[in-house]
Amino acid sequence: MTTIKTKPSDLDRPTSGSDVGLPVRRSFFRRLTFAAGGVAAALASVPIIGYFFRTPEPTTLPWIDLGPISGFRKGETRLVTFDNPLRQPWDGVTAHTGVFVRNEGAIAQNGAQFLVLAINCAHLGCPVTWFPESGLFMCPCHGGVYYADGERASGPPPRGLFQCIWRISGGRLQIQAPRFPTLQDTLKDEPKSA
Amino acid sequence: MTSWLSKIGDWFDARLSFRGSLLPILKHPIPKGAAGPMGWWYVFGSASLTLLLLQILTGIALALVYVPSADRAYDSLLYLNYDQPLGWFLRSLHYYAGSGMVVMVLAHMTQVFLQGAYKYPRELTWLTGVFLLLCTLGMFFTGQVLRWDPDAYWGLAVGGAMAGRVPGVGPQLVHLVFGGPIIGGAALSRFFALHVFIIPGALLLLLGVHLWLILTRGVSVPPVPGQLVDPKTYDAAYEKEVHDKGVPFLGDAMLKDAFVSAIAVAVVVVIAAIVGPKGPSGPPDPTMGGANPRPEWPFLWLFALLSLSPPSWETFIMLVFPLMLIAVLLAVPLVSNRGERAPSRRPVAVLGVVVIYTLLGILTYEGTASPWSPKMNAWSGDPIPEHLLLKTPPMELMGAAVFQNKSCRNCHAIDGIGGRRGPDLTSVASRLTRDQLIDQISNGTPGGGNMPAYGKEMNPGEMATLVAFLSRLRPDGEPPAQQPTHDEPPKHEPPVQAVAGRRPLATAPRP
Ligand code: FES
């Protein structure tokens, strides 16, 4: 009669899974290594990826002072330039931006009625120029044209010029700091917190 | 002396084992035909590689001086151009070697396509090649941003506006690309990182794979009409060809590559020295008027395509069409990886290449001319030719002034001078009657087409003088346009409907 001799380690071998054939201790260590690797990778990559894909965005937009309302003559459209407070300290001249302001005249209750238009064409963001003689805004890129009230006149833009939110405070015209406007993110929306 | 040197050589080789590793790679056998006269077709890839090395070298050199900060970048470019010895030349060389690289990559790709070298077993080589092309173009775009002049700034704006059209995540995407709510320092830093780390990293990685595939899959045999690629028999046949008749790459083939690379480098160096650096055209002040951004030349065709297509196709052309083009390029070896390789037996492939390059050429030309852009300074800068104003009565002269003042010149040329968005008006009076002119000027193109309605912006006096002036514009001896008879239906929509009824319109002024 032959006795079947089993080596003790054979009894420890798992019989299924990817660890087939490995001693239990070693297969445990193998799994532990995978787990440790996973944890290490997550610990390192979550903040790194977060850093790449999250950028600070103001939840409330600061107000910019454009000067006393008496400085805007009725019916006149003027490019008003300022440094955008949404800038970073090292933005230099690129933080310098402008809006077209038009005093549309007084309406009954709330005093002067202003129209504040972004400089960016509603088509693809190029800078529009105001031609006072013809009362038109023209865009150099693809020939978009807008009327004095910012409505689309001709060319490819799918809508009128973007309008900034304005208010009058202490007899001065103020606008909400304009971010780069696009078709889905017009200046009249609240900024979406990322 | 020589034995002394070779002893040093041996010492190093015992440690680096160049002779055992690098030399066999350089000497890898290639088909005999590829080393003969047909080998001249095979030189574009290595020329691209040589120009890439030049780009790395000049890029590093420029990075020693360039400041990737929004408030300093422009100054550092001027410093490079005027103060840093030979800075102007390196900037110029970096630009023209980059252009040369695009040209060489395209030539390489065209050759591989025409000679069917992408077929089995080199499908992956083609796929990595397509991504290498995308990296090269990506380097071109990001490089233009680093020039940090109005073109760069507004180029970013256009790119951002395009990204902003992506359904759903558009705004988040714009924010991600700019690194903030406005275009500024964060955007420049991002594009700097893309231009010097991210895209070059991807490019070098892909290039490694591409070269590895060339070594392991071998260089294709010059195509022979009638010799079909069949994946079942190809490997054995190629093996036999290369083993029996193959020659080492280090030799005639490499000599051709080196010769063409040398010519390519010499050409870009000469062009760079003659033409000089590109830009910067001015400080990137967003409020400065007169900016008229144009994309770099490899993208002009897309700019033209976009401008020439109807607005309703635009978002598709911006967002989907480029992806489709890439998909088509990627699909090439997957769709046809066997069969005939010789261009003489693949007329469709040859025709395709001819058609594509013709289209690209025409669109690029259109992009350079961009007749759809108003000429923003034509109202003051392009006067009406004097001979048209000789012996003109005062009323018509006034009209000419109105024509100039109302910036009609920005879109309409006279005698070929002025904008080209609208038709040239040199002989408009032989096409349109007085009433038609008034209607056209008041209401613009019906439905908000290409001409704005001037109805509100012109008083009757201005309209009268302008029309009087325009009515004179016809060639000598040609009769004026015929007055439509009264019972004829009006040619244009009734004025009120012209711009969806929102614009009050001046009807014919009665002077
Ligand atoms: S960006 Fe203004 S018309 Fe296209």
Give structural attributes.
heterodimer, A: 194 residues, alpha+beta, four-stranded antiparallel β-sheet, three-stranded antiparallel β-sheet, 18% helix, 27% strand, B: 511 residues, mainly alpha, two-stranded antiparallel sheet, 19 helices, elongated, disordered C terminus, binds FE2/S2 (inorganic) cluster
Contiguous uncertain segments of 5+ residues of chain B: 493-511
Shape type of chain B: elongated
Work out the helicity level of chain B.
55-70%
Count of DSSP E strands of chain B? 2
Order of adjacent strands in the largest pleated sheet of chain A: 5-6-7-8
Helix and strand sequence of chain A? HHEEEEEEEEEE
Characterise the protein shown here:
The complex is a heterodimer of chains A (194) and B (511). Chain A has two helices and ten strands, in the order H-H-E-E-E-E-E-E-E-E-E-E. Chain A is of the alpha+beta class and 194 residues long. In chain A, strands 5-6-7-8 form a four-stranded antiparallel β-sheet, with no helix packed on it. A three-stranded antiparallel β-sheet of chain A has the order 1-10-9, with no helix packed on it. A three-stranded antiparallel β-sheet of chain A has the order 2-3-4, with no helix packed on it. In chain A, a hairpin with a 6-residue loop joins strand 6 and strand 7. Chain A is elongated. In chain B, helix 4 packs across helix 12 (252-275) and helix 13 (300-308) packs across helix 15. Chain B is elongated. At the A-B interface, strand 3 and strand 8 of A face helix 8, helix 9 and helix 10 of B. The structure holds FE2/S2 (inorganic) cluster.
